[in-house]
Amino acid sequence: MADMNRFWKQMTGLGAKLRTLLFPRRCICCAALLDAPTSVPLCSACQQKYLEARRVCCPDCRSPIAVCRCRRIGAGNVPLYSLLPYRPGRTDDPVNRLLYLCKNGGEASAEDFLAEQLAALCECVIAEHPDIARDAWILTYPPRSAEKKRQTGHDQAEALMNRLSRLTGLSGIPCFVREPGTGAVQKMLNPDARAENARSSYRLTPAAKTLDGRYVMLIDDIATTGATLGTCASMLLDAGVQGVIALTAAKTVHAPGHDTQI
Ligand SMILES: [Zn+2]
Ligand SMILES: [Zn+2]
């Protein structure tokens, strides 16, 4: 029996080696070969750039993005916490590549990586609110439009929330459904019109109306103006939720001298 176990162990080990030989793992940003077995899907040069991005500061409070607590969104003045800066147009930024891969759903390791990092921020949120019991928190997300989900076969906010739920043990509860025909236009609207459009784009699920006294972390990949998240947060608060914090993998930070809205 012990021999048999050893045999299978050796075979599994051989299988893993063969797989690495036939399908070597590559950096998801620059496609460089990854030599050491690692759960981080970035080469050392891209890891360096990723760590530099983690040091980028909020233009308002001058704290690194992951520890910035100054941003508020929507009519409910809800806190927005983010892990990373999203700096549009930077083609060599691993953050942009990670977000792109998440949006298109082609690379599970990008989502795994971002979710692991975001789970640490979830734990910070819980630790920063010692008066709120851990099991009073739930996770939810604003769903992607049905058209976009059909095109890509993927909803990145839902995928991130599901991973976070597994990693933190917090319940993930779908609180919103997207009204049909409400995709794509949001990006082209000004902030007021975005809030208006967001409110008519989402409807609360019956589950969202049973969350009296609960606290919600509203999960998304990127916050640009925060209009969608702000509106969804207000809808939850109106439905009787005790508190909401929007939590995103990244928020848009423009370079100094450009529009400084984040
Ligand atoms: Zn790389
Ligand atoms: Zn700040």
Outline the structure in words.
By secondary structure, the protein is an alpha/beta fold. It has a single domain, classed as 3-Layer(aba) Sandwich (Rossmann fold), CATH 3.40.50. Helices cover 41% and strands 16% of the residues. It contains eight helices and eight strands, in the order H-H-E-E-H-H-E-H-H-E-E-H-E-E-H-E. Helix 3 crosses helix 4. Mean pLDDT is 88; it is low at 257-262.
Quick tags:
Rossmann fold; disordered C terminus; alpha/beta; globular; binds zinc ion; single chain; six-stranded mixed β-sheet; two-stranded antiparallel ribbon
Short structural summary:
The protein is an alpha/beta fold and 262 residues long. It has eight helices and eight strands.
Average pLDDT confidence is 88
The helix content is: 40-55%
How would you sum up the major sheet? 6 strands, mixed
Query: Secondary-structure element sequence?
Result: HHEEHHEHHEEHEEHE
Please write out the topology:
Blueprint: H1 2-22, H2 44-54, E1 72-73, E2 78-86, H3 94-104, H4 108-128, E3 137-140, H5 146-152, H6 156-168, E4 171-172, E5 176-178, H7 191-201, E6 202-204, E7 215-223, H8 227-238, E8 243-252
Parallel strand pairs: 2-8, 3-4, 3-7, 7-8
Antiparallel strand pairs: 1-2, 5-6
The protein binds zinc ion (ZN) (2 copies).
One zinc ion binds next to helix 2.
